[in-house]
Amino acid sequence: MIxxxxxxxxxxxxxxxxxxxxxxxxxxxxxxxxxxxxxxFGSFVSxxxxxxxxxxxxxxxxxxxxxxKSKLLAIVANTRGAEDALHxxxxxxxxxxxxxxxxxxxxNTNKSIKDAMVAVEEIQNLTEVKGKTLVTYLSMGxxxxxGDPYAPEMVAEFVEQLEQLGVKxxxxxxxxxxxxxxxxxxxxxLNIQGYPHIEFGAHFHARPDQVEEKVLAAFxxxxxxxxxxLKGFGGCPMAKDDLVGNVATEKLIQSLEKEGQTLxxxxxxxEEAMKMVDFVFR
Length: 282
Hints:
The chain has helices at about 10, 20-30, 55-60, 80-85, 100-110, 115-130, 150-165, 180-195, 210-220, 250-260, 265-280; strands at about 5, 40-45, 70-75, 90-100, 135-140, 170-175, 200-205, 225-230, 245. The chain is of the alpha/beta class. The protein has one domain (about 5-280): Alpha-Beta Barrel (TIM Barrel).
């Protein structure tokens, strides 16, 4: 069964104008009506690092979860953030960005990869105690622009370490939109076959004309978990290409439905959310 993860947090976090808390909550409440498996709704990180997410706890208070089947995911960058997030019963998943690139790990979380792996272990233990689930994102999972070492075999080594820690969900992140179809196919086939008990996901950043080929390459390699953001808002500023953003959820849906997949989404509620997007990101 395909799982779609809608990521308003990723869409919003780099937006230059602060989005009012009530507007954030109204938008996320609309997303909760569509039928996505999970909503990546906010993050518990330093407000100095990500000012847009400083009101995540407040947003949570306004969310109406009673009639929604969607689960909530919050991003954390350290153990303290995880402890803060775990105070809220409404949150089902914690997401942690672990990078294949040493340079990006330092830039993104102010940690070395070694220290970040220690944080992963600590957060994994905390989530297990609280009955929650850790989602580990392997940033720069398809290469990096810094000249740091990279190979698919390195990704597999990271997966092996995470498997030993008991991590059950790993999402490969194409952080700067450089993944090609062959690499996507290789990476997912290698790891899905090697670790059948781990759920692997795809968090792609892509130009609009590359969305379908990347999504279908992962799907045909066995990936059943996909992140997206309506209209493709967000993405990594280090891509240095204004057209490289998050995979537009509507294009993701279209690509998978063309393959005959039934996604069980409320299309009317999806249309309403699409109407809200331009108001939220004005």
